[in-house]
Specification:
heterotrimer; A mainly alpha; B alpha/beta; C mainly alpha; A: mainly alpha; two-stranded antiparallel ribbon; 15 helices; globular; C: two-stranded antiparallel sheet; 18 helices
C-alpha cells in the first residue's frame, strides 16, 4: 500500500512535467497546426532561466575568510550577501521561485519572437517540413545553450526550507516510512495549478472561446472576421510560458544540461500522440497516465518479471495505442490523417 | 448486350441518422452508358463510393460480373475491372503527365504488387507508346513531359479520364466528368466519351449537365433521397412526370 | 521519357565509380584526403542513399533508421567475435539482420502514415536504444560498447597470440586506404542498386504513392507491400552502413541507435536534395567535410585567420565566429539546416537546377544533365 501510494505520487509528479510540455505542444498544434519539434528546447530554456538567474544572484568575489584565523584564507562570497547580508542570502536561497516570476516575460518574449520571426512562415508548409525546420531550430537552441553553459548539468537548488522530505505518511496515516521530497510535491501542485489556469483561461474567457473554436474549425473562425493570426501568436507565447515554467520548476529536480529538451521532446510527443493530436484534455490525461505507468514499471517487483520494461513502457504504450486507437485516447477525427 | 455487369441490391448506407442510400437497387447492362441523375444530396456519389469499396454498405450487396465485391478493398475492386474518375481530379500532381498514365497502365499489367525494381522504365517502350496513344485520345500528348500539377482543372480531369481508360476497365464510373469545364472542354470530353462508347465499355455516369446526359446515355436512372425513383431510356425519362416533379421541379426538359 | 536525353546507366556508373575511387586524389587539395574521413564519406553515403529510397521516393519520414544502423554494427562485431575477422560474412549477416529487423518495425509502423508513422519509428528506435543500454547488455555490452577480445571464439580463424586481431578481407587489412576502397566498392554497388530502383517501374510506383496514395489504391495497387519493401530496402542499406562502420573500426555502441542519429541522416538527405539520386551524397559530403574542417578550427586558428585586421577588430571577429566552429559546429549545422528547409526545400540539387534554368531558359525540357534526367525520367 505504501509503495503503491508512493509510486502513484511519483508518477503523478513525473506526469506533471509531461502533461505541462504536452499541453503546450498540443496547444500549438491544435491552433497553429504546427508540429513543433523545438518545443522541448523551450522547456530546456526555461530550466536554464532558473540556472542563469541562480548564477546571476551568486556572482561573487573573493573575500577573506574570517572563520579561519591561523592563516590567510579566502572564500567566494556572493555580492548579494556582501551588500544585503542575511536578506541577500535569503534571496539567493529562493532563486528558483523568484526566477519563476522572471521567466514569464522572458519565455513570453522568446515565444513571440519565435512565432513572429520563424514559425509563422511555416503554417502553410507540409508537416514534414515543419518537423524538419523546428528540428533544426531545436539543434540551434541547444547548441547556443551548450556554448554558453557548457555540456555538463548545472544544479539550481530549491530553497533550503523545502529541500527535505515531507512526512506525508504520518500526515495521512500511512506510516512514518512514507516520505516524499517537498519540492516534488510542490512541483505536482504547481503543475495542477498551471494546467487549471490554462483550462480556465480557455474555457472562461472570450479569447479562449475563440481559440477553442479555432482548434475545432479554423476556416470558419477565420471567415467570421476574427483576427485569428494575432491570437495564434499569443497562444504560441502562452505555450512557451507554460513549458518554460515547467522547465524552471524542474531544474531543482534534475540539474539541466543542454540536451534536456531533446530528451523530453520525444517523450512529450509520445504523450501528445497517446492523448490524441489536438486534444488538450487528452494531452494532460496521457501525461499523468504515462507518468504513473512509468513509475510503476520502474518498481523492482515489476522489473524482475519483465526486465527492461521501465525503459520502454512509454513507447510500448504509444505503439499499442497508435495501432488500436489511431486517434489516441481523446483525439478528434481528421486531425493529421492523410 | 443483355449481360448484367453491375448489380446493386438493397443497399442501405446511413451516416449518423441520415439515410444516404435507402434500399437502393440498380442493374447495369453490359455495353451501356448508364446515367444517374438526381438532385444534390440524392446519394449519387455515395453510390459510386460503395461501388469502388471506399464505403461499405450497412446492408445489401454489390455484385460485379457475378462476383460479390462488397467488403473488398478498393485495389481489389479496381483489379477486378472498375475504374473511376473522381469529382475533384485525383491525379499524381508531382509526376509528369506521361507518368500519370503509365502508373495505371502498370497496375493493369503488373497487378496489385510486383517487385520489378531492377527493370528499366526506359525499356518499357510498348507501355509508353500505349500511354501516348491514350494521351492523344484526350489531346494532352504534346504536354506529356510537363508536370501534371501545373495543368488547368479541365486538363486534369481529361488526364484522369485517360488514366482510367488505359486500364481498359470493364466498368468505368464517371463522377460529373464535365463539372466546372468550359463549354469547349465539355464538348471535347463528350466526343471522347462517345468514341469510347463505340468501344463497348460499360459506363456509369453521374452528370448534372442534361446536354451531356442526353447526348451519350443509353439508360437513365433517377435517384432521389437514396433510392431510384425512375429508370428508362432517355425518352422515357424525359416524358416521365414523376421525374419532372421530383428532380426538375416541374420544369420542362 | 525516351525523348529526354537521359544519361545511360553505364555512363553514370563509370563517371560515378571514377569519381569515388579517385577521391583520395581530388580530395587532397581540399585537405580531406585521409582514410578516416574518406571512409566516413562512403559509409554515410550508403546510409543516406538508402534513406533516400524510403524518404525520397515515398515521402515517409522515418526517425528510426539509426536503429538499423546499430543492428548492423552489433551484428558485424558479433560476426568478428564468433566467426571470423573476414568482413564479408559480417556484412552479409548485418544486412540480413537489419533487413529482418526493418521488416518487423516497418510492418507495424506502416499501418499508419504521416506524423504517426514518424512517431512510431521514433518510438521503436528509442526502445531499441534504451534496451541496448539496459537489459540487452549481454548482447550489446551496454555503455562500454561491444568490442573485440583476444579470447573470442572466432571459429574460422586461427587464434591470435598477442594484441587484437584486425578486420580483413582475405588477408587485406581494413585499416587505412584499403578500408576506404572496400567501403567505396560497397558505395558504388549501393548507388547502382539505387539507380536501378529510381529508374524502374517499382520506383515510379513509389513516387506515385508519395504523390497521391489514395489514387494509387483506386488504381489497383496494394500500397502497403510497396512501402514495406522500400522500408526494408532502406533498412538494409542502414545495416550495410552500420556493418561498414564496424569493419573500419570494430566496435559498436548504443549511441549509434539514438534518434538524433536518425536526425543526422535526414539532415544530410534534405541538405543534398530529397528524392534525387546524388543529392544525398552531396549532403553527406558537405556535412562530413565541413564537420571535419569546422571542428578542427579553434580560437588560435581564428586569430590567424583574422590576422590582417586591427587587433580590436580581430578580437571582435574571433568573438563573433568562435561559437560557430570547433565544438560549436552543430550550431552552424542547425542554422544551415533551418536555412535549407526554409528557402531551398529541394536542397542543393534544387539550387543547382534553379541556377541552371536561369542560364539555359531556351533549352528547357531537353536538359541532359544527370539531375534533370533523373528527376524526369526515373
Amino acid at each position: 500500500m505504501d509503495t503503491i501510494f508512493l509510486q502513484v505520487l511519483n508518477g503523478l509528479d513525473k506526469g506533471g512535467a509531461y502533461a505541462l510540455i504536452a499541453l503546450g505542444l498540443t496547444l500549438v498544434f491544435g491552433t497553429l497546426g504546427v508540429v513543433n519539434f523545438a518545443h522541448g528546447a523551450i522547456f530546456m530554456l526555461g530550466a536554464f532561466c532558473a540556472v542563469s538567474f541562480n548564477q546571476l544572484l551568486t556572482m561573487s568575489k573573493k573575500v577573506k575568510d574570517e572563520s579561519i584565523t591561523f592563516f590567510e584564507a579566502f572564500k567566494e562570497q556572493p555580492y548579494l550577501e556582501i551588500w544585503f547580508g542575511d536578506t541577500g542570502t535569503m534571496i539567493i536561497d529562493y532563486s528558483v521561485p523568484i526566477s519563476l516570476v522572471l521567466a514569464v516575460p522572458v519565455m513570453l518574449v522568446i515565444g513571440l519572437v519565435m512565432e513572429r520571426g520563424l514559425i509563422r512562415h511555416f503554417y502553410k508548409r507540409s508537416h514534414a517540413e515543419q518537423i524538419l525546420f523546428t528540428f533544426g531550430m531545436a539543434i540551434v537552441l541547444q547548441e547556443i545553450i551548450k556554448s554558453i553553459f557548457g555540456a555538463n548539468p548545472i544544479p539550481a537548488p530549491a530553497p533550503d526550507i523545502v529541500s527535505g522530505s515531507a512526512a506525508i505518511g504520518a500526515a495521512i496515516g500511512l506510516g512514518d516510512s512514507v516520505v516524499y521530497p517537498w519540492w516534488r510535491l510542490i512541483y505536482l501542485a504547481f503543475a495542477a495549478i498551471v494546467i487549471g489556469a490554462v483550462f480556465a483561461f480557455l474555457k472562461l474567457t472570450t479569447f479562449g472561446m475563440v481559440v477553442r473554436a479555432g482548434i475545432h474549425d479554423k476556416e470558419t473562425v477565420g471567415l467570421l472576421g476574427i483576427n485569428i493570426e494575432r491570437r495564434f501568436t499569443i497562444i504560441f507565447g502562452l505555450a512557451a510560458v507554460v513549458s518554460g515554467l515547467a522547465g524552471v520548476m524542474y531544474a531543482p529536480i534534475l540539474p539541466p544540461d543542454y540536451h534536456l529538451g531533446m530528451d523530453f521532446l520525444v517523450l512529450s510527443f509520445v504523450v501528445v500522440v497517446v492523448g490524441g493530436m489536438g486534444s488538450l484534455e487528452g494531452a494532460v490525461a496521457a501525461g499523468f497516465l504515462l507518468g504513473i505507468l512509468q513509475s510503476f514499471a520502474s518498481m523492482n517487483e515489476i522489473k524482475s518479471i519483465l526486465p527492461g520494461i521501465d525503459q520502454i513502457i512509454i513507447y510500448l504504450v504509444a505503439v499499442v495505442i497508435l495501432l488500436v486507437r489511431p486517434r489516441g485516447l481523446m483525439g478528434k477525427k481528421g486531425v493529421m490523417e492523410d | 448486350m443483355s449481360n448484367t455487369v453491375l448489380e446493386v441490391k438493397n443497399v442501405l448506407k446511413t451516416f449518423g441518422g441520415l439515410k444516404a442510400l435507402n434500399d437502393l437497387n440498380l442493374t447495369v447492362k453490359e455495353g451501356t452508358v448508364h446515367a444517374i441523375i438526381g438532385p444534390n444530396g440524392a446519394g449519387k456519389s455515395t453510390m459510386l463510393n460503395v461501388c469502388i469499396g471506399q464505403l461499405t454498405p450497412d446492408t445489401g450487396s454489390v455484385t460485379f460480373n457475378g462476383e460479390m465485391i462488397t467488403g473488398k478493398k478498393p485495389f481489389e475492386i479496381n483489379q477486378a475491372g472498375i475504374s473511376r474518375v473522381f469529382q475533384t481530379p485525383a491525379i499524381f500532381e508531382d509526376l509528369t503527365i506521361l507518368q500519370n498514365v503509365m502508373v495505371p497502365a502498370l497496375a493493369s499489367r503488373d497487378g496489385d504488387f510486383t517487385f520489378n525494381a531492377f527493370k528499366s522504365l526506359q525499356k518499357e517502350n510498348d507501355l509508353e507508346e500505349e500511354a501516348m496513344k491514350f494521351l492523344q485520345e484526350v489531346s494532352l500528348e504534346d504536354q506529356a513531359h510537363n508536370l501534371a500539377g501545373s495543368m488547368s482543372r479541365g486538363n486534369k480531369r481529361r488526364l484522369e479520364l485517360a488514366m482510367c481508360l488505359i486500364q481498359h476497365p470493364k466498368l468505368l464510373l464517371l463522377d460529373e466528368p464535365t463539372a466546372g469545364m468550359a463549354r469547349h472542354d465539355t464538348n471535347r470530353t463528350i466526343d471522347t466519351l462517345k468514341k469510347i462508347k463505340e468501344g463497348g465499355m460499360t459506363k456509369i455516369i453521374i452528370e448534372h449537365d442534361m446536354h451531356v446526359v442526353f447526348s451519350i446515355a443509353d439508360r437513365i436512372s433517377v435517384l432521389a433521397q437514396g433510392t431510384i425513383i425512375a429508370e428508362g431510356t432517355p425518352d422515357e425519362i424525359r416524358g416521365n412526370p414523376k421525374v419532372q416533379e421530383a428532380y426538375l421541379g416541374g420544369a420542362h426538359l | 521519357m525516351n525523348k529526354l536525353k537521359m544519361m545511360p546507366e553505364w555512363l553514370i556508373m563509370v563517371v560515378f565509380a571514377a569519381a569515388i575511387l579517385t577521391m583520395p586524389i581530388w580530395m587532397s587539395p581540399l585537405g580531406a584526403a585521409y582514410p578516416d574521413l574518406l571512409q566516413k564519406f562512403a559509409i554515410f553515403g550508403v546510409f543516406a542513399i538508402g534513406y533516400n529510397i524510403l524518404f525520397g521516393l515515398t515521402g515517409y519520414l522515418s526517425f528510426g533508421h539509426a536503429a538499423f544502423l546499430g543492428v548492423g554494427s552489433y551484428t558485424a562485431v558479433w560476426s568478428f567475435k564468433l566467426l571470423t575477422m573476414n568482413v564479408l560474412p559480417a556484412i552479409f549477416f548485418s544486412v540480413l539482420f537489419a533487413g529482418v529487423f526493418a521488416a518487423i518495425i516497418g510492418f507495424i509502423s506502416l499501418r499508419r502514415s504521416g506524423i504517426y508513422f514518424s512517431i512510431l519509428t521514433l518510438a521503436f528506435a528509442q526502445m531499441s536504444y534504451n534496451l541496448a543500454y539496459s537489459v540487452l547488455t549481454p548482447i550489446t555490452n551496454g555503455e562500454t560498447g561491444l568490442q573485440l577480445e583476444r579470447d573470442d571464439p572466432r571459429i574460422f580463424d586461427t587464434a591470435v597470440t598477442e594484441g587484437l586481431p584486425t578486420t580483413e578481407l582475405f588477408g587485406l587489412s581494413m585499416s587505412g586506404y584499403s578500408g576506404f576502397y572496400v567501403c567505396a566498392a560497397f558505395l558504388i554497388i549501393a548507388f547502382y542498386v539505387s539507380l536501378r530502383i529510381f529508374r524502374s517501374p517499382f520506383g515510379l510506383k513509389l513516387r506515385a504513392i508519395k504523390s497521391n496514395q489514395t489514387r494509387m489504391r483506386y488504381t489497383g495497387y496494394s500500397t502497403r507491400p510497396y512501402l514495406l519493401t522500400a522500408f526494408v530496402i532502406s533498412g538494409m542499406y542502414a545495416g550495410l552502413a552500420g556493418s561498414l562502420m564496424a569493419v573500419t573500426d570494430p566496435l559498436a555502441g548504443a549511441e549509434r541507435m539514438q534518434w538524433t542519429a536518425s536526425g543526422e541522416v535526414v539532415l544530410m538527405t534534405i541538405l543534398g536534395g530529397v528524392g534525387t539520386l546524388i543529392g544525398p551524397l552531396l549532403g553527406v559530403g558537405i556535412i562530413k567535410y565541413f564537420e571535419n574542417i569546422f571542428s578542427a578550427i579553434n580560437e588560435t586558428v581564428l586569430h590567424g585567420f583574422f590576422d590582417f585586421l586591427p587587433s580590436w577588430l580581430q578580437e571582435f571577429m574571433v568573438f563573433i565566429t568562435s561559437p560557430f566552429v570547433g565544438e560549436g559546429w552543430h550550431l552552424t549545422l542547425g542554422i544551415l539546416f533551418m536555412l535549407i528547409v526554409a528557402f531551398l526545400p529541394g536542397g542543393i540539387m534544387e539550387g543547382i537546377d534553379k541556377i541552371k534554368s536561369k542560364f539555359s531558359k531556351s533549352s528547357g525540357q531537353s536538359d541532359d544533365s544527370t539531375t534533370e534526367a533523373v528527376r524526369e525520367g526515373a
